[in-house]
Amino acid sequence: MTAILPPWIVLDSLLHNWLLEDIGRGDRTTSALFPANSIQGTAKWIVKEAGVIAGLPIAHRTFKLLDSSLSFIPQVPEGKLCEKGEVIAEISGNFDALLTGERVALNLAMRLSGIATLTQKYVDKIADLPVQLVDTRKTTPGLRLLEKYATQVGGACNHRMGLDDAVMIKDNHIAAAGGIAEAIALIRNSIPYPLTIEVETETLAEVETALQHKADIIMLDNMSFDLMRQAVVIIREKSDRVKIEASGNVTLETIRSVAETGVDYISTSAPITRSTWLDLSMKINN
Protein backbone atom coordinates (compact mmCIF):
# COMPACT_ATOMS: atom_id res chain seq x y z
CA MET A 1 0.00 0.00 0.00
CA THR A 2 1.31 3.44 -0.96
CA ALA A 3 1.18 6.13 1.71
CA ILE A 4 -0.56 9.22 0.37
CA LEU A 5 -0.38 12.68 1.92
CA PRO A 6 -3.37 15.02 1.83
CA PRO A 7 -2.93 17.92 -0.65
CA TRP A 8 -0.90 20.93 0.42
CA ILE A 9 -4.01 23.10 0.44
CA VAL A 10 -5.03 21.04 3.48
CA LEU A 11 -1.63 20.82 5.17
CA ASP A 12 -0.19 24.28 4.56
CA SER A 13 -2.36 25.98 7.16
CA LEU A 14 -1.18 23.46 9.77
CA LEU A 15 2.49 23.94 8.86
CA HIS A 16 2.03 27.71 8.79
CA ASN A 17 0.58 27.72 12.32
CA TRP A 18 3.31 25.42 13.66
CA LEU A 19 5.97 27.73 12.23
CA LEU A 20 4.25 30.73 13.79
CA GLU A 21 4.18 28.96 17.16
CA ASP A 22 7.96 28.52 17.07
CA ILE A 23 8.98 31.78 15.39
CA GLY A 24 6.73 34.11 17.37
CA ARG A 25 7.83 37.68 16.68
CA GLY A 26 10.99 36.50 14.95
CA ASP A 27 14.01 34.22 15.25
CA ARG A 28 16.17 36.52 17.37
CA THR A 29 19.32 34.44 17.01
CA THR A 30 19.24 33.78 13.29
CA SER A 31 18.03 37.22 12.22
CA ALA A 32 20.85 38.85 14.18
CA LEU A 33 23.45 36.62 12.54
CA PHE A 34 22.05 36.38 9.03
CA PRO A 35 19.78 39.11 7.62
CA ALA A 36 17.04 37.69 5.41
CA ASN A 37 18.28 36.14 2.16
CA SER A 38 21.82 37.33 2.83
CA ILE A 39 23.90 34.15 2.99
CA GLN A 40 23.46 30.83 1.23
CA GLY A 41 24.48 27.54 2.77
CA THR A 42 24.02 23.79 2.71
CA ALA A 43 23.12 21.22 5.33
CA LYS A 44 22.37 17.54 5.68
CA TRP A 45 19.98 15.50 7.77
CA ILE A 46 21.47 12.53 9.60
CA VAL A 47 19.82 9.55 11.30
CA LYS A 48 21.12 9.16 14.87
CA GLU A 49 19.53 5.75 15.44
CA ALA A 50 18.17 3.00 13.21
CA GLY A 51 14.58 3.43 12.12
CA VAL A 52 12.02 3.84 9.34
CA ILE A 53 11.99 7.29 7.75
CA ALA A 54 8.73 9.19 7.33
CA GLY A 55 7.93 12.85 6.86
CA LEU A 56 10.57 14.06 4.42
CA PRO A 57 7.94 15.64 2.10
CA ILE A 58 6.52 17.44 5.16
CA ALA A 59 9.96 18.73 6.10
CA HIS A 60 10.55 19.88 2.53
CA ARG A 61 7.29 21.82 2.49
CA THR A 62 8.03 23.38 5.88
CA PHE A 63 11.28 24.86 4.59
CA LYS A 64 9.63 25.92 1.33
CA LEU A 65 7.13 28.05 3.24
CA LEU A 66 10.11 30.02 4.54
CA ASP A 67 12.15 30.09 1.33
CA SER A 68 10.50 29.08 -1.95
CA SER A 69 13.91 28.81 -3.64
CA LEU A 70 15.30 26.37 -1.05
CA SER A 71 16.39 22.94 -2.30
CA PHE A 72 15.55 19.89 -0.19
CA ILE A 73 16.67 16.65 -1.80
CA PRO A 74 15.78 13.37 -0.01
CA GLN A 75 18.56 10.80 -0.16
CA VAL A 76 16.26 7.92 0.81
CA PRO A 77 12.63 7.08 -0.05
CA GLU A 78 9.84 7.33 2.49
CA GLY A 79 9.54 4.08 4.40
CA LYS A 80 13.19 3.05 4.18
CA LEU A 81 14.73 1.40 7.22
CA CYS A 82 17.90 3.43 7.75
CA GLU A 83 20.92 2.78 9.91
CA LYS A 84 22.55 5.14 12.40
CA GLY A 85 24.69 7.74 10.65
CA GLU A 86 22.91 7.55 7.30
CA VAL A 87 22.32 10.83 5.46
CA ILE A 88 18.64 11.09 4.55
CA ALA A 89 18.45 14.58 3.00
CA GLU A 90 20.64 17.30 1.49
CA ILE A 91 19.45 20.90 1.81
CA SER A 92 20.64 24.17 0.31
CA GLY A 93 19.25 27.66 0.63
CA ASN A 94 19.35 30.82 2.68
CA PHE A 95 20.77 30.30 6.15
CA ASP A 96 17.90 32.21 7.75
CA ALA A 97 15.35 29.76 6.32
CA LEU A 98 17.46 26.70 7.11
CA LEU A 99 17.93 27.66 10.75
CA THR A 100 14.49 29.13 11.39
CA GLY A 101 12.67 26.10 9.99
CA GLU A 102 15.02 23.48 11.42
CA ARG A 103 13.16 22.67 14.63
CA VAL A 104 9.64 22.42 13.23
CA ALA A 105 10.77 20.33 10.26
CA LEU A 106 12.84 18.00 12.41
CA ASN A 107 10.17 17.64 15.09
CA LEU A 108 7.60 16.53 12.53
CA ALA A 109 9.94 14.08 10.78
CA MET A 110 11.14 12.64 14.10
CA ARG A 111 7.59 12.10 15.33
CA LEU A 112 6.40 10.54 12.07
CA SER A 113 9.50 8.37 11.70
CA GLY A 114 9.01 7.04 15.22
CA ILE A 115 5.45 6.04 14.37
CA ALA A 116 6.49 4.43 11.07
CA THR A 117 9.26 2.52 12.84
CA LEU A 118 6.98 0.95 15.45
CA THR A 119 4.22 0.34 12.89
CA GLN A 120 6.62 -1.68 10.75
CA LYS A 121 7.52 -3.85 13.75
CA TYR A 122 3.84 -4.70 14.24
CA VAL A 123 3.30 -5.32 10.53
CA ASP A 124 6.36 -7.59 10.32
CA LYS A 125 4.88 -9.85 13.03
CA ILE A 126 1.90 -10.73 10.80
CA ALA A 127 3.32 -10.19 7.32
CA ASP A 128 2.83 -13.82 6.25
CA LEU A 129 -0.81 -14.00 7.38
CA PRO A 130 -3.96 -12.82 5.52
CA VAL A 131 -4.72 -9.99 7.93
CA GLN A 132 -4.13 -6.23 7.88
CA LEU A 133 -3.05 -3.90 10.66
CA VAL A 134 -5.14 -0.73 10.98
CA ASP A 135 -4.72 2.36 13.13
CA THR A 136 -7.33 4.16 15.28
CA ARG A 137 -8.56 7.67 16.12
CA LYS A 138 -6.27 7.80 19.16
CA THR A 139 -4.08 10.50 17.67
CA THR A 140 -2.54 13.78 18.83
CA PRO A 141 -5.01 16.64 18.27
CA GLY A 142 -3.83 18.61 15.24
CA LEU A 143 -1.55 15.81 14.03
CA ARG A 144 -4.06 13.16 12.95
CA LEU A 145 -3.54 13.52 9.21
CA LEU A 146 0.21 13.23 9.56
CA GLU A 147 0.25 10.50 12.21
CA LYS A 148 -2.09 8.35 10.13
CA TYR A 149 0.11 9.02 7.11
CA ALA A 150 3.06 7.70 9.14
CA THR A 151 1.26 4.44 9.96
CA GLN A 152 0.72 3.97 6.22
CA VAL A 153 4.43 4.52 5.62
CA GLY A 154 5.07 1.79 8.19
CA GLY A 155 2.78 -0.62 6.33
CA ALA A 156 -0.57 -0.29 8.12
CA CYS A 157 -3.97 0.72 6.74
CA ASN A 158 -5.96 3.69 7.97
CA HIS A 159 -9.12 3.10 9.93
CA ARG A 160 -11.68 5.92 9.68
CA MET A 161 -10.10 9.37 9.75
CA GLY A 162 -12.98 10.89 11.68
CA LEU A 163 -16.50 10.37 12.93
CA ASP A 164 -17.96 11.16 9.50
CA ASP A 165 -16.08 8.40 7.65
CA ALA A 166 -18.12 5.42 8.81
CA VAL A 167 -20.53 4.27 11.49
CA MET A 168 -18.95 2.52 14.46
CA ILE A 169 -21.41 1.48 17.14
CA LYS A 170 -19.41 1.21 20.35
CA ASP A 171 -20.33 0.03 23.84
CA ASN A 172 -21.58 3.43 24.99
CA HIS A 173 -23.73 3.84 21.88
CA ILE A 174 -25.22 0.39 22.52
CA ALA A 175 -25.94 1.20 26.15
CA ALA A 176 -27.51 4.56 25.31
CA ALA A 177 -29.64 3.14 22.47
CA GLY A 178 -30.86 0.15 24.45
CA GLY A 179 -29.03 -2.56 22.54
CA ILE A 180 -27.31 -3.51 19.31
CA ALA A 181 -30.53 -4.19 17.42
CA GLU A 182 -32.01 -0.84 18.41
CA ALA A 183 -28.81 1.04 17.55
CA ILE A 184 -28.51 -0.52 14.09
CA ALA A 185 -32.17 0.10 13.28
CA LEU A 186 -31.99 3.77 14.24
CA ILE A 187 -28.75 4.36 12.38
CA ARG A 188 -29.68 2.47 9.21
CA ASN A 189 -32.66 4.77 8.71
CA SER A 190 -30.57 7.94 8.83
CA ILE A 191 -27.10 7.43 7.37
CA PRO A 192 -26.28 8.21 3.72
CA TYR A 193 -25.23 5.59 1.20
CA PRO A 194 -22.58 4.10 1.08
CA LEU A 195 -21.48 4.38 4.73
CA THR A 196 -20.77 1.04 6.37
CA ILE A 197 -21.92 -0.01 9.83
CA GLU A 198 -19.43 -1.52 12.26
CA VAL A 199 -20.51 -2.92 15.62
CA GLU A 200 -18.28 -3.45 18.63
CA THR A 201 -19.00 -6.78 20.35
CA GLU A 202 -17.69 -8.35 23.55
CA THR A 203 -19.68 -11.61 23.69
CA LEU A 204 -20.82 -14.31 21.27
CA ALA A 205 -24.42 -13.27 21.88
CA GLU A 206 -23.59 -9.76 20.70
CA VAL A 207 -21.85 -11.22 17.63
CA GLU A 208 -25.03 -13.18 16.81
CA THR A 209 -27.16 -10.04 17.17
CA ALA A 210 -24.84 -7.98 14.96
CA LEU A 211 -25.03 -10.71 12.31
CA GLN A 212 -28.79 -10.94 12.53
CA HIS A 213 -29.13 -7.21 11.92
CA LYS A 214 -26.66 -7.22 9.02
CA ALA A 215 -23.72 -5.26 10.34
CA ASP A 216 -21.06 -4.79 7.66
CA ILE A 217 -18.11 -5.13 10.06
CA ILE A 218 -18.03 -6.85 13.43
CA MET A 219 -15.35 -5.84 15.91
CA LEU A 220 -14.28 -8.42 18.48
CA ASP A 221 -13.31 -6.19 21.37
CA ASN A 222 -11.04 -7.37 24.19
CA MET A 223 -11.94 -11.02 23.64
CA SER A 224 -9.72 -13.91 24.62
CA PHE A 225 -8.03 -15.79 21.78
CA ASP A 226 -10.38 -18.73 22.25
CA LEU A 227 -13.47 -16.53 22.18
CA MET A 228 -12.21 -14.76 19.07
CA ARG A 229 -11.73 -18.08 17.29
CA GLN A 230 -15.29 -19.09 18.18
CA ALA A 231 -16.64 -15.75 16.97
CA VAL A 232 -14.80 -16.07 13.66
CA VAL A 233 -16.31 -19.54 13.08
CA ILE A 234 -19.83 -18.24 13.84
CA ILE A 235 -19.44 -15.28 11.48
CA ARG A 236 -17.86 -17.27 8.64
CA GLU A 237 -20.58 -19.94 8.82
CA LYS A 238 -23.29 -17.32 8.34
CA SER A 239 -21.65 -14.78 6.04
CA ASP A 240 -18.64 -14.41 3.80
CA ARG A 241 -19.47 -10.73 3.33
CA VAL A 242 -19.00 -9.48 6.89
CA LYS A 243 -15.50 -8.27 7.74
CA ILE A 244 -14.06 -9.13 11.14
CA GLU A 245 -11.90 -6.78 13.16
CA ALA A 246 -10.09 -7.54 16.41
CA SER A 247 -9.17 -4.84 18.88
CA GLY A 248 -8.03 -4.36 22.45
CA ASN A 249 -4.76 -5.07 24.27
CA VAL A 250 -2.82 -5.66 21.06
CA THR A 251 0.93 -5.71 21.67
CA LEU A 252 4.00 -6.92 19.79
CA GLU A 253 3.80 -10.06 21.94
CA THR A 254 0.11 -10.80 21.25
CA ILE A 255 -0.54 -9.57 17.71
CA ARG A 256 0.43 -12.81 15.98
CA SER A 257 -1.89 -14.86 18.20
CA VAL A 258 -4.69 -12.42 17.41
CA ALA A 259 -4.00 -12.73 13.68
CA GLU A 260 -4.04 -16.53 13.85
CA THR A 261 -7.69 -16.49 15.00
CA GLY A 262 -8.69 -15.73 11.41
CA VAL A 263 -9.78 -12.08 11.64
CA ASP A 264 -9.49 -9.75 8.65
CA TYR A 265 -8.18 -6.70 10.49
CA ILE A 266 -6.40 -5.91 13.73
CA SER A 267 -6.83 -2.37 15.01
CA THR A 268 -4.52 -0.85 17.59
CA SER A 269 -3.46 2.60 18.71
CA ALA A 270 -0.05 1.33 19.84
CA PRO A 271 2.05 2.43 16.83
CA ILE A 272 0.94 6.00 17.50
CA THR A 273 0.43 6.10 21.27
CA ARG A 274 3.40 3.95 22.26
CA SER A 275 5.99 5.04 19.73
CA THR A 276 9.02 7.17 20.57
CA TRP A 277 10.54 9.80 18.32
CA LEU A 278 13.31 8.71 15.98
CA ASP A 279 16.37 10.85 16.63
CA LEU A 280 17.40 12.93 13.61
CA SER A 281 19.66 15.96 13.34
CA MET A 282 20.57 18.70 10.88
CA LYS A 283 24.22 19.61 10.37
CA ILE A 284 25.34 22.70 8.49
CA ASN A 285 28.13 21.88 6.05
CA ASN A 286 31.31 23.86 6.75
From TrEMBL:
Keywords: Glycosyltransferase, Pyridine nucleotide biosynthesis, Transferase. Its EC number is 2.4.2.19. Belongs to the NadC/ModD family. InterPro entries: Aldolase_TIM, NadC, NadC/ModD, Nicotinate_pribotase-like_C, Quinolinate_PRibosylTase_N_sf, Quinolinate_PRibosylTrfase_C, Quinolinate_PRibosylTrfase_N. The keyword Cytoplasm does not apply. Involved in the catabolism of quinolinic acid (QA). Residues 27-113 form the Quinolinate phosphoribosyl transferase N-terminal domain. This is nicotinate-nucleotide diphosphorylase (carboxylating). The gene is nadC. One of its GO terms (molecular function) is nicotinate-nucleotide diphosphorylase (carboxylating) activity. The lineage of its organism: Bacteria, Bacillati, Cyanobacteriota, Cyanophyceae, Oscillatoriophycideae. Residues 115-283 form the Quinolinate phosphoribosyl transferase C-terminal domain. It comes from Microcoleus anatoxicus PTRS2. The keyword Transferase applies. Pathway: Cofactor biosynthesis; NAD(+) biosynthesis; nicotinate D-ribonucleotide from quinolinate: step 1/1. It catalyses: nicotinate beta-D-ribonucleotide + CO2 + diphosphate = quinolinate + 5-phospho-alpha-D-ribose 1-diphosphate + 2 H(+).
